[in-house]
Design goal:
The chain is of the alpha+beta class. The chain has one domain: 3-Layer(aba) Sandwich (Aminopeptidase). Helix content is about 30%, strand content about 30%. The protein contains five helices and eight strands. An eight-stranded mixed beta sheet has the order 1-2-3-4-5-6-8-7, sandwiched between helices. It is globular.
């Protein structure tokens, strides 16, 4: 049985739908708006990326859609561990047009709410390149705490070594984080 089970999550800002190939054409356009930054993985072949994500047993991938139904990115529950009640929210990217808008906060709120209040997670983790300042700032704005840096953790597609910044929110922190995120979403 897949954990977490596929689910659609939505609020007035964003809808997260289980990812499938019908999202590929719009997501390819959204991904193209970002170019190919060296420090993160923006898919250059979106159909292949969707197939890869759907084929992983420890992933529950979502297409990020605006309220009008237009796909603008991807996000994933990954490295899921039902026995230890933990998930990572990652492999996230958003088109340039919605960056620095309420979309990221709204989708993270939905995923955190689901993880803590429906899946009864003990912890939700976030990981990003140590040098990805934009991503690290966004994770910190959510209320996640830096757990540490995994040095030379991943070999990037360009052959460089990635130091991974690991963040988390634990279940006892969720009520305060929830109040903070609710206040940020007018």
């Amino acid at each position: 049985m897949t954990w977490p089970a596929p689910v659609t999550l939505e609020n007035r800002y964003v809808r997260l739908k289980p990812l499938n190939q019908e999202h590929a054409p719009a997501l390819a356009k959204a991904a193209a708006s970002l170019g190919d930054p060296w420090y993160t993985g923006i898919p250059q072949d979106v159909p292949a990326e969707i197939t890869k994500r759907l084929g992983q047993s420890d992933m529950q991938p979502f297409a990020v859609l605006l309220p009008d139904g237009r796909p603008v990115g991807m996000t994933t529950y990954c490295n899921t561990d039902q026995n230890n009640a933990r998930v990572e929210i990652g492999a996230t990217w958003l088109s340039r047009e919605v960056q620095r808008s309420s979309v990221n906060t709204a989708m993270k709120y939905l995923m955190l709410h689901h993880a803590f209040e429906k899946l009864s997670c003990n912890v939700v983790e976030f990981r990003t390149h140590r040098l990805n300042r934009q991503s690290r700032a966004a994770i910190e704005r959510l209320g996640a705490q830096l757990d540490g840096i995994l040095r030379n953790h991943v070999i990037m597609p360009n052959g460089t070594l990635r130091d991974t910044a690991v963040y988390s929110i634990i279940a006892t922190e969720w009520p305060a984080v929830k109040a903070h995120l609710t206040a940020k979403l007018p």
